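Good morning C.,

I know you're traveling, so I'll keep this short. The sequence:
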Amino acid sequence: MAIQITQKEKKQIATTGRRLFTAKEYQRMAEVGILKHDERVELIDGDIFKMSPISIRHVACVDRLTMFLAVKAQGTAIVRVQSSVVLGLRSQPEPDLTLLKFRPDYYSKDGATAEDVLLIIEVSDTTLSYDREKKLPLYARTGIPAVWIVNLNANLIEVYSEPADGVYGSTAQFGRGQSIQVPGLEGAVVKVEDVLG
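The tokens, ready to paste straight into the viewer:
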């Protein structure tokens, strides 16, 4: 399959100097080797962004969350670690963790989309402004019901929920000594210090 450019896209390229990609084109670039399988990139609103290297603290936080969620989600939800989810025509971000509605085929027939997501978690240190300014608005626009940003710099978890009109109607911050109910997992409550370490 060749990547086709419509007249509208040609006009956009001529006026902005940018070519926006669709999720299907992005996937095809990976299939044919334009994007390498180990290349850390993601598609946000038609643009391909290179992802920042991951710090040791970031990795440890993702590991702690993965262990906790995997135990609590067993048989009721799927925990996806640093894998993409298709959000609309032109976005395929790669959150640190995604909690998906359970499906026996584990989304092997078709990929997960916004309707399948219970929770997205982004672990942020050097990526905090990118996660807040680029990814959070995308998550709100596509109706992701809940997003956590684990802010390693401030040692807290930012919780966003109730998306409407492209923004989250409810925001809260939780610090050490507090606990958070995991959306979509009844009775699963995680302590902030267990996430931060």
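Safe travels,
E.
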